[in-house]
Amino acid sequence: MSFITEIEFFDPHKVADSGQAFRIHSIDSTHTELIAHGRYLQIADLGESRYAFSCTPDEFQNIWRHYFDLDTDYIKALKEIDPSDKYLKDAVNYGYGIRILNQDIFESVISYIISQRRSIPSITTCVDRLSELYGRKIDLPKLGEPFVNPLKKEYYSFPSPDELKKATTEEINSIGAGYRTPYIISAVNDFVSGKLDPEALSALSDDELYTVLTSMFGVGVKVANCIMLFAFHRCGRFPVDVWMQRIQDKYYGGSFDCTKYPETAGIMQQFMFFYERTEDSHK
Question: What confidence category does residue 283 fall into, taking pLDDT thresholds of 50, 70 and 90?
Fold first, then answer.
């Protein structure tokens, strides 16, 4: 089962290494796998901007086209870059093909709560453990050419609010959540009770959504902006972590001027983040 298509401005390997999602991984130089929306997907890079997806054409159109944000014209957006900004131009050239994923709202909220003061490998481990404890086992598709064997034998979906509601404090602690455990439990209760409803949240303005997210127990400015960018596709948001503050201090006098990119600052942020984290390979 596969669907082959040509996609301009798309690099699954760079997306996997861009830090915006924690369940997408490179298998080898031409294969990438991910778990999202309760499904396993593998992507094979066939060269010349052609990609094979381990799904049906309908699944690609109904799920993965939106997930990978394939209807957004990134080339047009990147033409708006200030020509005098050498660092940003270099970052975009280096990260060519990165797109902002449209991730599940509940999974993003919990994942970014977990992410506080952690490395990406540590976040990934916690998210995987949580999925193995409370998610459902995923039936893997039959993979023939041009695909390869998955990295693991078993994969689990990220748990729903109702599934995660069953978790005890001790069990959430056991995944390594630490001081974030009560934040996770509070967020789960907010979704189960209906206090937080994904559809209603999606209808809010940026300012309203930001206010709701930062009012959650344990959710600060950076986490709220990450959730807005990666789950709600509010591409004007500009999350600032240690890496991004380092970039601002080194190249922008302590503050990047987001007003130049009111609708695309988050896209610019992702290229800058990816570029700086892999600086040893380009500097």
Answer: very low
From the list 69, 79, 78, 39, the residue with the least C-alpha distance to 55 is 39
Q: Who's near 150: CB < 8 A, 6+ residues apart?
A: 27, 33, 40, 42, 140, 143
**Structural tokens at position 261:** 């990119």
Integer CA distances (angstroms), 110 to 81, 100, 130, 182, 195, in order: 33, 18, 10, 11, 15
pLDDT beyond 90 at 282: no
CB of 107 within 8 A of CB of 158? yes
Taking the C-alpha atoms of residue 265 and residue 82, their distance in angstroms, rounded to an integer, is 12
Q: Which residues contact 117 (CB under 8 A, 6 or more apart)?
A: none
Alpha-carbon span 189 to 187, nearest angstrom: 5
Alpha-helical (H) ranges within 60-205 are 65-67, 74-78, 86-94, 105-114, 120-134, 161-164, 169-174, 181-193, 198-202
Q: Are 251 and 87 in contact (CB under 8 A)?
A: yes
Per-residue model confidence as pLDDT tens digits over 142-178: 999 999 999 999 999 999 999 999 999 999 999 999 9
d(CA 255, CA 246): 10
Q: Which amino acid is at 160?
A: S
What integer is the mean pLDDT of 212-240? Answer: 97
| Nearest in space to 18 (alpha carbons), one of 126, 91, 74 | 91
- Closest of 117, 91, 25, 98 to residue 276, by C-alpha: 91
pTM: 0.94
Q: Does a cis peptide bond (omega within 30 degrees of 0) precede residue 146? A: yes
pLDDT tens, position by position, 96-147: 999 999 999 999 999 999 999 888 999 999 999 999 999 999 999 999 999 9
